[in-house]
Protein 1
Amino acid sequence: MHALIGHFYYWLYQLDVHYFLEVRMHTWLNGLLAMFAVVALLVRVPYSVVAALLALAFLLICSLGSRFARRRYYIHFVPQKMEPPEDPPPPLWPEDKLLHHATGHFHVEDKEGDWTHLIAYYRTFETREHAVMARLTPSFFLRIGMLDPLSLGMWYIFITPEALLAVTPGRSYFGPMVEPALRLRWQRKDEKGRPLEDIAFLHFQSEADLVRVMADLLLDMGGPARRPWRPPRLTTNL
């Protein structure tokens, strides 16, 4: 069931972010389904009414499903209990970066956007601010849909310890991808500068990567940040 939901969300996301002739593919699908339903009702053939109702039902499912999935950034996340390791890994130093995938609300300069499962690097600066540096690359859907070229490039999420509210381990489902993941509950500001509670997802290739990033996030979650955070100096006895 989880995999089925993940595949459904995946298709909804692709339809929502890809364009054909500068129109979202989801809009094309809704228009074609509505047109098919009208034609089926006008043409008097066996089962035409049933076909029209099925088309309208599919249109409704896709529209409501897209609205529901969009609130979760099209990720089906299943929380899992995880016992803390007896020997937790050290937090990331400022020069460290870890390759993963990221989902959430991103910013870059004067633009912002919601993106799912972007290739990214996770870093933590000396100030203990956590950074997700992601890249949106060109892609095609069903050989005709393409991403908005103006959206391609680097996108960022910055989370301070004070803004991080909760970290939940689990597994994420997105199309064929089932991965260890962290769901971050954090507070950001909307376009009017008002505080807004949001979620983000970090997807990993291994449980070890998940544990390492989770230990780094939990180190000073909620603040105050441990400043500055630098590797200990090596001392030698003369």
Protein 2
Amino acid sequence: MFDSSLVVQSAASSFNNAALWAPDFFWSALMALPVFAVFWIFAPKIAEKFLPGEKRRDYRVSILAFLVVAIWLIAQGNYGVLRDFSWVGVLIAVLLCACAAFLSRRYYEGSARLSQCLPVNRKWGTRTDYALPAMVVIVAAAAGEPTWAGMALQGGTVAVGWLSGWLLHRRNARETDPKLLVALLIFGAAYGLIMQPEFFRFGQLGRLTAVHLVFLTMFAVALPAYIALHFARPRGWFVRGFYKGARLFAAVAALLLFSLFVITESALAFLAIAGLSFVFGCIFAWRQPADAANGIKSVKHDLWFASLALFGILTALPALTCAAIVLWRISPRGALKKLL
């Protein structure tokens, strides 16, 4: 009757019930509303001060997104809550590898190297550049405790990612749109929220509230639509009748999939919603005439801003939401209404 396991189960049950009724991401976003309002009001001045140059704004925000997500992933290192045979640890390692590769390349291409920030030392020269990568790998490995396998996996993947970024810099490889890389990164992280919510302090024992489900669904609609508009080009292929039928079918399918997601809270249902959004995004782009490229580009930017803001709320990372608010505020509106 007084088995120690009962005490642990009782404490876990109380914690889980509290988390279910008070999702942290929702309350943190609610309490951050004054901060969001300040960023909305002063967005032009903030953009002028910290994001000068229209062509470099998205690039700078992408670096911020990778850095913030990397820190967030490392901070989740409580592997004691993982279920048996969970793949979340592998997913975290893969995402950290991607973050390390992206940030490593920017580190060697920019002026943030330790050898350029510190006074010139003839003895060591540029060897100080090895200090930061070593510290990053050590921190990532330490976050993979308590098992040696977790430490080796996480530290090793970060080391491989950093080396990959250095090789990309050395070979001057072709750049990929950083916004697309951010989109893929945050989608993988959001999928991890569904795989095992308790690991990410997102929901307990795999159970999510209505607020969790609504925000996840909005994210699953916005981000795949952005990816679809990134690859699909306006062709004017479909007549208006076909487009209306496709829109009606997508609405009915979305309602059914959302109901399935609410009932099952399944990662497969989440992927199905994302797949439907991607397919309809392609149809939407292909239906537009070739001269609507600028409008499609504007809608694509809006979807990226919305995805970044939603992910910032889901993961309690207000820096991403504030950056999205600034970009949204200074961007032109109205393109979606014209295209619909």
